[in-house]
Design a protein that fits this description.
With 137 residues, the protein is α+β, with helices and mostly antiparallel strands. Helix content is 35%, strand content 17%. A hairpin with a 2-residue loop joins strand 6 (92-94) and strand 7 (97-98). It is globular.
Length: 137
C-alpha cells in the first residue's frame, strides 16, 4: 500500500502524540523488526507500558513529554520503516473515523481512506482475538 506523504511541518508530528496500542504479539514483532532493521535492542520495560482498555489488557508505546518515545529531536520517527500498524494507518483512528485535526486528512482520496479503514478494522479484529499478556511486562 502506498504511504501517505505526511508533512510534519504542518502539525509538528501531532499524530505521534497519540498512544499507539499493540498486542503482545505486535510488541514481540516490533522488537524483532527494530533489531533487524536498525540494529537497536529494545528493552520492553523502557519502551512499552501495559494498560487496560475496553477489550482487555493491551500494550502501548511509552510517551515522553507528551510524545511517542520513538520521536527524535526533529520530530521524526526513529523506527519509521517498522512502526506499529496503527501508526501506519493514521489518520484513521477508528473503523468509521479519521482524525480531523490531521492537516493532510482532507487531501487523502476517499478510496484510500476506505482501504485504510478496512485494514484498521481487520487489525482490531485480529488484535482482540490475540492473547494480550506478556511475561516480561
Amino acid at each position: 500500500m502506498k504511504a501517505l506523504n505526511c508533512n510534519i511541518k504542518l502539525c509538528n508530528s501531532r499524530c505521534c502524540r497519540n498512544c499507539a496500542v499493540l498486542t503482545g504479539d505486535e510488541v514481540l514483532k516490533l522488537i524483532e523488526d527494530v533489531r533487524k532493521e536498525y540494529a537497536l535492542e529494545l528493552d520492553p520495560k523502557k519502551y512499552f507500558r501495559k494498560a487496560k482498555g475496553k477489550h482487555g489488557v493491551y500494550f502501548a508505546l511509552k510517551m515522553i513529554k507528551g510524545q511517542c518515545i520513538f520521536l527524535n529531536k526533529e520530530k521524526r520517527c526513529r523506527i519509521y520503516r517498522c512502526r506499529p500498524a496503527l501508526c501506519e494507518l493514521y489518520p484513521v483512528i477508528d473503523v468509521d473515523a479519521v482524525d480531523e485535526h490531521c492537516p493532510e486528512v482532507k487531501e487523502i482520496p476517499d478510496e484510500f481512506l476506505a482501504v485504510l479503514k478496512k485494514r484498521y478494522a481487520a487489525e482490531i479484529d485480529e488484535n482482540i482475538k490475540k492473547e494480550q499478556e506478556l511475561w516480561f511486562i
